[in-house]
Amino acid sequence: MTVLAGAAFAASLVALPASAAAPASPMGEQAEVGAAAWSACPAARMCIWTGLDGNGGIGIFQLGDGDLGDSSGPRGLNNATESGWNRTGQTWCFYDGTSYSSLLGTMAPGERYNWHPTKRNKVTSLRVCP
Ligand SMILES: [Ca+2]
Protein backbone atom coordinates (compact mmCIF):
# COMPACT_ATOMS: atom_id res chain seq x y z
CA MET A 1 0.00 0.00 0.00
CA THR A 2 1.25 3.45 -0.87
CA VAL A 3 1.14 6.01 1.89
CA LEU A 4 0.34 9.34 0.29
CA ALA A 5 0.11 11.47 3.35
CA GLY A 6 1.36 12.11 6.81
CA ALA A 7 -0.88 13.43 9.51
CA ALA A 8 0.51 16.92 9.81
CA PHE A 9 -2.12 19.17 8.26
CA ALA A 10 -3.42 20.66 11.46
CA ALA A 11 -1.37 23.82 11.33
CA SER A 12 -2.43 24.84 7.83
CA LEU A 13 -6.12 24.44 8.50
CA VAL A 14 -6.84 26.22 11.72
CA ALA A 15 -6.81 29.61 9.98
CA LEU A 16 -9.45 28.71 7.41
CA PRO A 17 -12.90 30.18 7.96
CA ALA A 18 -15.74 27.98 9.05
CA SER A 19 -18.80 28.24 6.86
CA ALA A 20 -21.56 25.70 6.26
CA ALA A 21 -23.17 23.89 9.15
CA ALA A 22 -22.79 20.14 9.46
CA PRO A 23 -25.10 18.39 7.00
CA ALA A 24 -27.09 15.25 7.49
CA SER A 25 -26.29 13.32 4.31
CA PRO A 26 -24.05 10.33 5.02
CA MET A 27 -21.14 9.45 2.75
CA GLY A 28 -21.71 5.73 2.89
CA GLU A 29 -23.88 3.23 1.15
CA GLN A 30 -23.78 0.70 3.97
CA ALA A 31 -22.85 0.47 7.61
CA GLU A 32 -19.60 -1.39 7.23
CA VAL A 33 -17.73 -3.71 4.92
CA GLY A 34 -15.11 -6.37 5.57
CA ALA A 35 -12.24 -5.42 7.83
CA ALA A 36 -9.31 -7.09 6.06
CA ALA A 37 -7.90 -4.10 4.18
CA TRP A 38 -8.36 -1.26 6.63
CA SER A 39 -5.41 -1.79 8.95
CA ALA A 40 -3.20 1.05 7.66
CA CYS A 41 -5.33 3.72 9.30
CA PRO A 42 -3.93 4.95 12.62
CA ALA A 43 -6.10 5.64 15.63
CA ALA A 44 -7.50 9.16 15.99
CA ARG A 45 -7.24 9.93 12.25
CA MET A 46 -9.52 10.22 9.25
CA CYS A 47 -8.35 7.90 6.49
CA ILE A 48 -9.50 7.86 2.89
CA TRP A 49 -8.50 5.43 0.15
CA THR A 50 -8.36 5.46 -3.62
CA GLY A 51 -9.96 2.01 -3.74
CA LEU A 52 -12.90 0.25 -2.19
CA ASP A 53 -12.69 -1.52 1.17
CA GLY A 54 -9.64 0.42 2.33
CA ASN A 55 -7.52 -0.61 -0.65
CA GLY A 56 -5.17 1.46 -2.81
CA GLY A 57 -3.49 4.71 -1.85
CA ILE A 58 -4.31 6.13 1.55
CA GLY A 59 -4.65 9.68 2.83
CA ILE A 60 -4.39 10.22 6.60
CA PHE A 61 -5.77 13.39 8.16
CA GLN A 62 -5.96 14.97 11.55
CA LEU A 63 -8.09 18.02 10.74
CA GLY A 64 -8.52 18.01 6.97
CA ASP A 65 -7.28 19.43 3.68
CA GLY A 66 -8.79 22.35 1.78
CA ASP A 67 -7.64 21.19 -1.64
CA LEU A 68 -6.51 17.65 -2.37
CA GLY A 69 -5.53 18.80 -5.86
CA ASP A 70 -2.90 21.33 -4.83
CA SER A 71 0.74 20.77 -3.98
CA SER A 72 0.19 20.99 -0.24
CA GLY A 73 -0.59 17.72 1.48
CA PRO A 74 -1.13 14.31 -0.08
CA ARG A 75 -1.05 13.63 -3.83
CA GLY A 76 -3.17 11.37 -5.93
CA LEU A 77 -6.34 11.63 -3.88
CA ASN A 78 -8.24 14.44 -5.57
CA ASN A 79 -11.42 13.10 -7.20
CA ALA A 80 -9.98 9.64 -6.65
CA THR A 81 -11.21 8.26 -3.31
CA GLU A 82 -13.82 5.57 -2.76
CA SER A 83 -13.75 4.52 0.89
CA GLY A 84 -13.06 5.97 4.30
CA TRP A 85 -12.69 5.31 8.00
CA ASN A 86 -13.31 7.97 10.59
CA ARG A 87 -11.22 7.01 13.58
CA THR A 88 -11.60 10.43 15.19
CA GLY A 89 -14.18 11.41 17.75
CA GLN A 90 -15.74 14.03 15.48
CA THR A 91 -18.01 14.06 12.45
CA TRP A 92 -16.22 14.85 9.17
CA CYS A 93 -17.53 16.71 6.13
CA PHE A 94 -16.52 15.90 2.55
CA TYR A 95 -16.80 18.30 -0.36
CA ASP A 96 -16.67 18.11 -4.14
CA GLY A 97 -15.08 21.53 -4.43
CA THR A 98 -12.01 23.21 -3.03
CA SER A 99 -12.08 25.18 0.22
CA TYR A 100 -14.97 23.13 1.60
CA SER A 101 -17.53 23.96 -1.09
CA SER A 102 -20.24 21.72 -2.59
CA LEU A 103 -20.88 19.35 0.27
CA LEU A 104 -21.01 15.67 -0.62
CA GLY A 105 -21.72 14.14 2.78
CA THR A 106 -20.51 13.34 6.24
CA MET A 107 -18.98 10.51 8.25
CA ALA A 108 -19.79 10.10 11.93
CA PRO A 109 -17.14 9.02 14.47
CA GLY A 110 -16.14 5.39 13.99
CA GLU A 111 -17.82 4.93 10.62
CA ARG A 112 -15.96 2.87 8.03
CA TYR A 113 -17.34 1.99 4.64
CA ASN A 114 -17.27 2.29 0.90
CA TRP A 115 -18.72 5.58 -0.20
CA HIS A 116 -22.00 5.66 -2.01
CA PRO A 117 -21.43 5.18 -5.76
CA THR A 118 -22.65 8.72 -6.47
CA LYS A 119 -19.98 10.12 -4.12
CA ARG A 120 -16.95 8.14 -5.26
CA ASN A 121 -14.06 9.85 -7.04
CA LYS A 122 -15.36 13.31 -6.20
CA VAL A 123 -13.88 14.42 -2.89
CA THR A 124 -11.67 17.47 -3.27
CA SER A 125 -11.66 18.82 0.28
CA LEU A 126 -12.47 17.46 3.71
CA ARG A 127 -12.42 18.57 7.31
CA VAL A 128 -13.89 18.08 10.74
CA CYS A 129 -17.37 19.51 10.28
CA PRO A 130 -17.64 23.10 11.51
CA1 LIG B 1 -14.19 17.20 -6.76
Question: What is the topological layout?
Answer:
Blueprint: H1 10-13, E1 46-49, E2 58-61, E3 64-65, E4 83-86, E5 92-95, E6 103-107, E7 112-114, E8 125-128
Antiparallel strand pairs: 1-2, 1-4, 3-8, 4-7, 5-6, 5-8
Bound molecules: calcium ion.
Calcium ion (CA) binds next to loops.
Describe the structure.
This protein has a 4-stranded antiparallel beta sheet with strand order 2-1-4-7, with no helix packed on it. It has a 4-stranded antiparallel beta sheet with strand order 3-8-5-6. The protein starts with 9 loop residues before the first helix and ends with a strand. The chain has 1 helix and 8 strands. Helix content is 3%, strand content 23%. By secondary structure, it is mainly beta. The chain has a single domain, classed as Gamma-B Crystallin, domain 1 (Sandwich). A hairpin with a 7-residue loop joins β5 (92-95) and β6. Calcium ion binds next to loops.
Instruction: Find the count of extended strands (DSSP E, 2+ residues).
Output: 8
Number of helices: 1
CATH topology heading? Gamma-B Crystallin, domain 1
Which strand order does the major sheet show?
2-1-4-7
Q: Whole-Å distance between the termini?
A: 31 Å
Q: Main β-sheet: number of strands, strand sense, barrel status?
A: 4 strands, antiparallel
The domain tally reads: 1
**CATH class value:** Mainly Beta
Query: What is the radius of gyration computed over CA atoms, rounded to a whole number of angstroms?
Result: 13 Å
**Which structural class is indicated by helix and strand composition?**
mainly beta
Mean pLDDT: 82
